[in-house]
């Protein structure tokens, strides 16, 4: 398969390196990722300035790689239009430094890059690894991504599907299995830390803690229990539950 890899942690991040190393064993891989970290940039795109693209060498990676001075969504757009010849079979985004579960899917540049691919009618996968005490699980996440690709390639590589894969910080032999589940209820108890600058102006730094929902059958819950989670996503945000009801008002 011909695969485009991107992320939101930057082209030199360990996560995308690990994913490329695993996938290029059996697939043709092209990398286009932000030149610097663009975490939590959601689905923003660059409109009022040109994108600067440079071919880069990632030591130990045989695949072509490009740095893009833009967002993850920018990387997908410009790669499909200018950097890749022919059809791309799938776009993979990650491996993200931390899970993208619950409300994080709305903030995540990793997930948004995968959604951008679906807008172009290309199936995609966002891959994320739980981080604990500064330790990652990228190798295990890369193996699960490769295994999932083999399982879905014949039947489930539909053009509008975004697969959201989260891997817990657990040794592979201790992972309990894979749970196909819905997005959970993770939210944040946010506040802003205020400081007065020498100029007299004020700065406000976002702080907060995760408020994990314990609702069962969700990605947030199952990752915490030691499962790999897989959630099919779609970019259509229509609330179909009340669509017909609202129509009746008019």
Automatic annotation (TrEMBL):
Pfam families in alphabetical order? SurE
Organism of origin is: Clostridium muellerianum
Its localization reads: Cytoplasm
For this chain's record, the cofactor binding note is: Binds 1 divalent metal cation per subunit.
Q: Which InterPro entries match?
A: SurE, SurE-like_Pase/nucleotidase, SurE-like_sf
Q: What class of enzyme is it?
A: hydrolase
- This one is known as 5'-nucleotidase SurE
Give one GO molecular function term.
Answer: metal ion binding
Q: Please give the catalytic activity noted in the UniProt record.
A: a ribonucleoside 5'-phosphate + H2O = a ribonucleoside + phosphate
Cofactors needed by this protein, per the record, are: Mg(2+); a divalent metal cation
Q: Which GO terms describe its cellular component?
A: cytoplasm
The question of whether Metal-binding is a record keyword is answered with yes
> Its family?
Belongs to the SurE nucleotidase family.
Alphabetized, the UniProt keywords read:
Cytoplasm, Hydrolase, Metal-binding, Nucleotide-binding
Q: What does this protein do?
A: Nucleotidase that shows phosphatase activity on nucleoside 5'-monophosphates.
Gene assigned in the entry: surE
Q: What is its EC number?
A: 3.1.3.5
Residue span, Survival protein SurE-like phosphatase/nucleotidase domain: 4-189
Output the lineage of the source organism. Answer: Bacteria, Bacillati, Bacillota, Clostridia, Eubacteriales
Annotated residues that bind a divalent metal cation are located at 8-9, 39, 96
Q: Which domain of life is it from?
A: Bacteria
Presence of keyword Nucleotide-binding: yes
Q: What HAMAP family does the entry give? A: SurE (MF_00060)
């Amino acid at each position: 398969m011909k695969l485009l890899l991107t992320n939101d942690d930057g082209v030199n991040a360990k996560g995308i390196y690990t994913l490329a190393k695993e996938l290029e064993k059996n697939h043709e891989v092209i990398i286009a990722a932000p030149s610097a970290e663009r975490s939590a940039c959601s689905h923003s795109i660059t409109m009022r300035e040109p994108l600067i693209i440079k071919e880069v060498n990632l030591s130990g990676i045989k695949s072509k790689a490009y740095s893009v001075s833009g967002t993850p969504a920018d990387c997908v757009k410009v790669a499909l239009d200018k950097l890749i010849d022919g059809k791309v079979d799938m776009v993979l985004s990650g491996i993200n430094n931390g899970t993208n579960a619950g409300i994080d899917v709305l903030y995540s540049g990793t997930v948004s890059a995968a959604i951008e691919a679906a807008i172009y009618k290309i199936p995609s996968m966002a891959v994320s690894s739980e981080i604990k005490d500064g330790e990652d699980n990228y190798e295990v996440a890369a193996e699960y991504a490769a295994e999932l690709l083999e399982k879905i390639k014949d039947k489930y590589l539909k053009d509008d599907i975004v697969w959201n894969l989260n891997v817990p910080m657990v040794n592979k032999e201790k992972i309990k299995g894979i749970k196909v589940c819905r997005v959970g209820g993770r939210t944040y108890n946010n506040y802003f830390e205020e400081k007065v600058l020498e100029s007299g102006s004020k700065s406000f730094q976002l702080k907060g803690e995760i408020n994990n929902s314990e609702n069962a059958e969700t990605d947030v819950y199952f990752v915490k229990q030691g499962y790999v989670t897989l959630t099919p996503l779609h970019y259509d945000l229509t609330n179909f539950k009340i669509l017909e009801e609202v129509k009746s008002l008019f």
